[in-house]
């Protein structure tokens, strides 16, 4: 029926429009297919922990007179429900980042303050895995905690005299983007390694690169083009084990795009990965 419709269009409006029309149709179909895939993924990802929770709850009922078994299964219920909650939060983040274009609250922000806040949000997980988080600016080490920030969360809008670089972004979007990259670097690295967060200006200061460099497992070449897709994981089992949802990088990509920047990756299996966010700077 599509073919017949197209023929009618040709006779009505001519060849140029015909080409455009086909383009639109396939674009529309591609979009529909992506939406269907996404919904299939979402339902699958939600069903897995939800199904586990109901099974585990039944098992607890059956094991009522064995306190050790009850404790064990209750622990697993708790883990699966955490997973479910994490997934729902991530879906909301993704929705926000995807819909944000143009309605973001762009402010002049200190990149080092953004990096420090993103580091602070990952410090507990890093300590738990004996991973050191190092921050540098223009190749020189800088403290991960601002001297004047006495415990309170640092506002990325604050100005100090120390060397820094500024961008115009939505604070939540850019912090989420950097936070997700650091979180992955920790998840996909062995214990007792270092994750470096290197901030450096380029192109005469008109741009800034925020690099998150790990000494982790790396990404196989055949997967590197796909890791920013929603729900794509190189190793789904490992990702689930570390609490991954497969949405982190998709969220990062949208957040960075909302700030007018790009994100790219370099990786070597077994050596590590470097994710780079590039943003235009402001004075
Ligand atoms: P997840 O929640 O699974 O970590 P992401 O969207 O954040 O989802 O990442 C997608 C996939 O990319 C991960 O499952 C992992 O296979 C790979 N990946 C992301 N960051 C790294 C990294 N720093 N080192 C190795 N692999 C990574």
From TrEMBL:
Full-protein interval shown: 150 to 432 of 432
EC supergroup of this enzyme: transferase
Catalysis performed (reactions): ATP + protein L-histidine = ADP + protein N-phospho-L-histidine
Domain of life: Bacteria
Domain Histidine kinase: 41-283
GO molecular function: ATP binding
Main localisation: membrane
Localization per Swiss-Prot or TrEMBL: Cell membrane
Record lineage: Bacteria, Bacillati, Actinomycetota, Actinomycetes, Bifidobacteriales
EC code: 2.7.13.3
Chain segments carrying region Disordered: 140-165
Protein name: Sensor-like histidine kinase SenX3
Entry keywords, A to Z: ATP-binding, Kinase, Membrane, Nucleotide-binding, Phosphoprotein, Transferase, Transmembrane, Transmembrane helix, Two-component regulatory system
